[in-house]
Amino acid sequence: MVPETRQGVTRTAVSRDRGSANRSIPDAVRRLAALALLGVCGSAALAGLALGAASPATAAPSDSPVPAASSPADATTSSGPTASSDATAPADATAPADVTPTDPGPTGSAPTPPGDTTPPPTATPPTLSAPTAGYVSPGAVSVRGQGEPGAPLTVSSGGVVLCSTTVDGDGAWSCEVDGLTSSPSTTLIVTQDDGVSGDGQAQTASVTIAVLTPPTVSGGPRGPLTNGALRGTAYPGAVVTAAADGATCQGVADGSGAWSCPLSGLADGPHSVRAWQETPWSAGASPESAAVAITLDTTAPAAPALLSPAAGAGLPASGAVFSGTGEDGSAVSVFADAYVLCQAPVVDGSWSCPASEVPAGTYRVVVLQQDAAGNVSVQSSPIELAFGTAAGTTPATPDGAAPGTPTDPAAPSPTDAAAPPSTSAPAPGDSTPSAPGAPGTPSGPDGLERSQGTWADATQFTTALSPLIGAGSASTWLVALIAGGFVVAVVALPARLLAGTLGTFDRDGDGRRARLAARLTGRNRSRYEFERAPDVSLSPLVVGAGALLASAAVSVLSVPVLGQPAYLRLFLAAATALAIVNAAATVPAAVAGRRMLGAAVTIRLAPALLLVSAAGAVLSRLAGLDPALVFGLVVALAVPVATGTADRGRLAVAQLVPLLALGACAWIAQSLMPLPEGAAGAWLTEVLTVTALACFGTASALSLPLGASPGRALLRWSPAMWVGLAVVSFGGLSALLLPAVAGSGRIWIPIVVGVGFAAVSVSVWAWQRYVAPVLGSDGDE
């Protein structure tokens, strides 16, 4: 059989040899099938005519699919014929009686219900023509494109609808978006209303852009009134540039978006500040922010006055009332060494506050104030007060208020020093000046409250020394001389004993010390077996200047250093002071040596002495000493080998006495100087302070009877003179450091360390002197 197509209907052609096919089917069955087929076809035709006459307008289109009916007489027919006015429809297929198909579809397709003959509409999907991908928006952008005419449309980002619009009749649309936040990746999604299409699905389009808005400027840390510090918010990690009347500064926003920078070079008064920011992904800067008005005030107030209590008074451990005068609107802080006793605002030119509790002892008390713009004054002249000597007696406030109650209701209580003193003064919790070690820098938790500093600010060396002459100085010097004798007894002499003991370790010449050194250092070959590095000759003047500057830098680093101009001034002061100290330690001795010996006693560079300075700086930082240990010597005397013991002892005296005299003079001059005013006054004070510290520190180090030191030469020549000069040297150093050590409550630490060192040194000496010889003699037998 070969398939053939007629009038769009595929059917199976029947072989014309019907006789052979029909002979296999009984005649009765064939007749019944033929009658049934005729009945079905007739019923279908009558139903079609009736339906067409009743509703001719709803006739099914010619392409409506109809299911095929299989003829029982021919099981090979796959679909029914097309229903039409042709009465000669084949007898092997027929259409259902309730459908009038004109163009049957594939077998098994569902018929289209009557009355739903319109094809579903197709909506135009939305498109975006602006902005393009990668565009950097300043926070507002015009979004445009094409869409289905008349369709509602929205633009959103992150689930938030930014704007809504309706597509014009020509298919164009635009929507203005504003209020975007800075981000390297912001996705704008355009959504067209799904009511236009018949499929029930919303149609969308999207684009990803970057957003960089202008930063914000909030003025200074305390508002419009500032000492030059500016701050605000920006995108985290952005570089923010602030400008005001030609002056600019830059800062980097932290992880929270906060930024700050110091604005300098402007006169005090009103100014207008703008700022902009830049990020690596923005490929340029943001627009400028709106102008913010500030009032610049960079003039630090004068030191406040402490009127009560008087110097040398005995006070209870807590509750003593401090009072004085200051600048209106400022906040005054009272310090006892490193302790903050109390804080109070200045109202009508006066202030008063009760002290919080401190450990019993004698402290150096100073006061300073910070004005409303954040400028910090220098501290007042220090006075010494003894706390804990009047236990159980709590003085009343000047106006008769209860103990512990501030006279000003806005002043902070002693148990809550962080409470704001008043609405007009800065809150001590975030603007309290730091301890007298750094009175020029208020301690803000995020650094924004910190004063930017000027050349005239105080440093740790500006007022590090207690007065040499004053109330209680006699008792201080007595304690200091006792401490000096203690150091000589438990440190200097045991050190000499230990050094001498270790020096006899190789007395028999058996090479034990050399072998031990080789094991410790790894050196078992001569240094001359290796290639030597090329010698680089430098001018002694250059080497000396470099060593002196390095020593000055080490001395400055013995205390915490802040990034402020005052610390550069301190470095210059330290370099000046150490130059004077090096000259005092060598020039008089060299002149005396030439006159006494008639031989050349020269001055040579000794950069290795920087290790002693570094050790003092490290010890000062670890122990928190204020003032710090300062050595600073980088030169030494070159004495002829043939110089006798007596001459070497006299040269040692010529080194130590000028150092002690210079140190005492510098200390007296620093004590008698008035409160430093301006950068020049602060520099001079620091020169005197570093000179005094370096003189006594250097004299103490040179007094140690170790190696070829002047102390060892003096001990050989005159033990009594060595003891006297050593006690004065260590006593002066103790007088300098005693207030800091005693105030910290850790005075027992150096005592324990000294006694322990003495015990170890004596034990080593006793073993080598008495036990080792006995063991050696037993072994010989």
Automatic annotation (TrEMBL):
<feature type="compositionally biased region" description="Low complexity">
    <location>
        <begin position="389"/>
        <end position="445"/>
    </location>
</feature>
<feature type="region of interest" description="Disordered">
    <location>
        <begin position="1"/>
        <end position="23"/>
    </location>
</feature>
<feature type="region of interest" description="Disordered">
    <location>
        <begin position="55"/>
        <end position="153"/>
    </location>
</feature>
<feature type="compositionally biased region" description="Pro residues">
    <location>
        <begin position="111"/>
        <end position="124"/>
    </location>
</feature>
<feature type="compositionally biased region" description="Low complexity">
    <location>
        <begin position="125"/>
        <end position="134"/>
    </location>
</feature>
<keyword id="KW-1133">Transmembrane helix</keyword>
<feature type="transmembrane region" description="Helical">
    <location>
        <begin position="687"/>
        <end position="708"/>
    </location>
</feature>
<feature type="transmembrane region" description="Helical">
    <location>
        <begin position="720"/>
        <end position="741"/>
    </location>
</feature>
<feature type="transmembrane region" description="Helical">
    <location>
        <begin position="747"/>
        <end position="767"/>
    </location>
</feature>
<feature type="transmembrane region" description="Helical">
    <location>
        <begin position="477"/>
        <end position="499"/>
    </location>
</feature>
<feature type="compositionally biased region" description="Low complexity">
    <location>
        <begin position="55"/>
        <end position="110"/>
    </location>
</feature>
<feature type="transmembrane region" description="Helical">
    <location>
        <begin position="541"/>
        <end position="562"/>
    </location>
</feature>
<feature type="transmembrane region" description="Helical">
    <location>
        <begin position="628"/>
        <end position="646"/>
    </location>
</feature>
<feature type="region of interest" description="Disordered">
    <location>
        <begin position="389"/>
        <end position="452"/>
    </location>
</feature>
<dbReference type="InterPro" id="IPR013783">
    <property type="entry name" value="Ig-like_fold"/>
</dbReference>
<protein>
    <submittedName>
        <fullName>Uncharacterized protein</fullName>
    </submittedName>
</protein>
<dbReference type="GO" id="GO:0005975">
    <property type="term" value="P:carbohydrate metabolic process"/>
</dbReference>
<keyword id="KW-0812">Transmembrane</keyword>
<feature type="transmembrane region" description="Helical">
    <location>
        <begin position="653"/>
        <end position="675"/>
    </location>
</feature>
<keyword id="KW-0472">Membrane</keyword>
<feature type="transmembrane region" description="Helical">
    <location>
        <begin position="603"/>
        <end position="622"/>
    </location>
</feature>
<feature type="transmembrane region" description="Helical">
    <location>
        <begin position="568"/>
        <end position="591"/>
    </location>
</feature>
